[in-house]
Amino acid sequence: MKNYTLISTEDLSEKGRLTMHEQLGLSGAEISFNQLPAGVNVPFIHKHKQNEEIYVILEGSGYLSIDDEVIDIKKGDVFKISPNGERCIKACEENAISFMCIQVKENSLNGFSETDGVILEEKPKF
Amino acid sequence: MKNYTLISTEDLSEKGRLTMHEQLGLSGAEISFNQLPAGVNVPFIHKHKQNEEIYVILEGSGYLSIDDEVIDIKKGDVFKISPNGERCIKACEENAISFMCIQVKENSLNGFSETDGVILEEKPKF
What we know:
Largest sheet of chain A: 7 strands, antiparallel
Distance between the termini of chain A: 22 Å
Radius of gyration of chain A: 17 Å
Helix content of chain A: under 10%
Oligomer: homodimer
Largest interface: A-B, 82 and 82 residues
Order of helices and strands of chain A: EEHEEEEEEEE
Strand content of chain A: over 45%
């Protein structure tokens, strides 16, 4: 069995909503790509039971309603929201917004990079 | 204490390497943004002990050396690599490649979206 799965898309920022968990066989995250047209918000506020979410703004700009605050967000912003954060995203009136959302279980990561990665002697097959 | 942390960057695809774990206080993932100049590859092959990695190609094109295969990769591709996969990425001779790498612990996600999210009655503060 292969150690990888791959999805090829033309442009991730132009999908209405694209979810990756099933297609890629993810076991430690759910990843979705989302687009909201100008002036449109996610139709509800939500929080989470166990998962922290990391959002990456890929295109456009808009607003994040988080608990009692509203924050301007734009392309290049990356933010983490703890499970209890009450959140909703809205696109600006002037433009759509595209973003990635990564759900992971809070406190689930043990090590990473140098403490989880193993550098090998083999040479790449390029 | 606020339920969110945010980093604002001009353009995520133009950083040499930008890591998010410390800056965002991530607890369930490490996320990095990486750029390789044209013709350049990561200087080693690596695998992982516990973590699966999800790569998102943000700009450009190149090659993934994975175990005994070499695969063409380009903007819009998303792929997951299991911990044991022996991997290395290289940019094409013609252009740089920019990609996001998300490290999460394999099999750590319990529920997601409908099974972990809680929809609230409150209205956003927009």
